[in-house]
Write a structure and sequence with these properties.
There is one protein chain. The protein is 44% helix and 14% strand. It is an alpha/beta fold. The strands form two sheets. It has a seven-stranded mixed sheet with strand order 1-2-3-6-7-8-9, with helices on both faces. It has a two-stranded antiparallel ribbon with strand order 4-5.
């Protein structure tokens, strides 16, 4: 069975304690692990955080454990989020936004993959010690821990073939379209519980081409009134309060604006209503609009939509190249590229271009880099405040 929202949130909150090995036994006394009679197998997971060389640390990152009496023949993999320990090495893990291939050859976030891959030997050893009879594996995490839990769920479902359940709170995006579609198929969308507050900036990064799983599932959208820049909506305490006493069904159908409707996206791009980077609504509309415009350019230039972002150049370089090509394409393509760039520049407080021709590849690259820097700054601010 699935773990309820309150229990999943409790695990995602308390797992931060196991960064200190002295608190591992305390964590394993939580209700999902309580067992009478036979011994329960568990292991303290340590992960490499930071870069491959710079600020590289081995740190207490999670727990793998058999369930207790309430979860017989079930396993829990629980991962902590970003902390300020180890001279802020976790922040370097978050900041490694390049694309690499995971064990299945699918494009994912470099930093998250490195962190998860460093725990794979321990995970393989743990599952080998169980001797089978596993019915379900539950993967849980908040923030960075949610990203790693997503990679763990994909690995368990794909390589171990166990039924898998995923529960993430305020997690960033983990992979591109190829990974998202593949992991949704492997884990199954109905088993993927992505919980996020409307004003949690961490759930909005990294920007496209990274996307959220499950594919074509909205996730559990929870209204929040905290300002985006305050970072309060990212706090795990806030998520615990938001889901307390609720069922998955009760938080499944919260309505969102029609971000994915093409007519609504076009209306937003053409509207004269001012936009601000401090508004969560801007980031949601921008994400949908960017995908919409990039698709138009890709189709017009006969470029493979996702394949355009694979290679040695940065995401900003690739995107600037595509959008600059779109400016020079047919009127129906160039028009939407121009509208998108005007919206972004307005949100950043930049002066709008005088003409479409002034939107050079260099200017577009500069604007996109500023936008990415702003989104990453907001997310980092939220993470720092949630750890205080």
């Amino acid at each position: 069975m699935a773990v309820g929202p309150s229990d999943a949130a409790l695990l995602a909150k308390r797992i931060y304690d196991v960064q200190n090995p002295m608190f591992v036994d305390t964590f394993l006394k939580l209700p999902p692990f309580r067992r009478t009679g036979s011994k329960r197998l568990s292991a303290h997971l340590k992960a490499e955080v930071g870069g491959r060389v710079l600020l590289n640390h081995k740190d207490g990152f999670g727990i793998c454990s058999e369930g207790g009496d309430l979860y017989k023949n079930e396993v829990f993999l629980v991962f902590r989020g970003t902390t300020k320990e180890n001279k802020g090495a976790d922040f370097l893990t978050d900041a490694r936004i390049g694309i690499t291939n995971n064990q299945a050859g699918l494009p994912v976030h470099c930093g998250f993959h490195h962190c998860f891959a460093s725990m794979l030997p321990a995970l393989k050893a743990f599952f080998a010690s169980l001797g089978g009879n596993i019915k379900v594996v539950h993967c849980v995490g908040h923030s960075l821990g949610g990203a790693v839990a997503s990679l763990a769920a994909d690995w368990v479902a794909r390589h171990l073939k166990y039924a898998t359940r995923l529960y993430t709170f305020g997690a960033p995006r983990v992979g591109t379209d190829w990974f998202v579609k593949s992991t949704t198929s492997a884990v199954q969308g109905v088993n993927m519980h992505r919980i996020y507050h409307k004003t949690d900036p961490v759930a909005m990064v990294p920007l496209y081409p990274f996307m959220h799983a499950p594919y074509n599932f909205p996730g559990h959208y929870i209204h929040s009134h905290e300002p985006l820049l305050s970072g309060d909506a990212h706090r795990m305490d806030r998520y615990v309060t938001s889901v307390k006493g609720k069922s998955w069904d009760s938080i499944k159908g919260n309505p969102e604006p029609p971000y994915t409707l093409e007519s609504a996206i076009e209306s937003w791009l053409e509207s004269k209503t001012p936009v601000y980077s401090s508004s969560p609504t801007f980031w949601r509309w921008f994400d949908s609009a960017l995908i919409y415009v990039i698709k138009k350019v890709a189709m017009a230039t006969l470029v493979t939509f996702q394949g355009a972002f694979v290679g040695i150049f940065t995401v900003a370089d690739k995107m600037a190249y595509l959008l600059a090509k779109g400016i020079k394409m047919a009127e129906h393509v160039g028009y939407w590229v121009e509208r998108l760039m005007r919206k972004i520049m307005q949100a950043l407080g930049m002066r709008a271009p005088e003409s479409r021709e002034s939107l050079t590849e260099g200017l577009i690259r500069h604007v996109l880099r500023r936008l990415m820097a702003q989104s990453n700054k907001d997310a980092r601010n939220a993470i720092q405040k949630s750890d205080s």
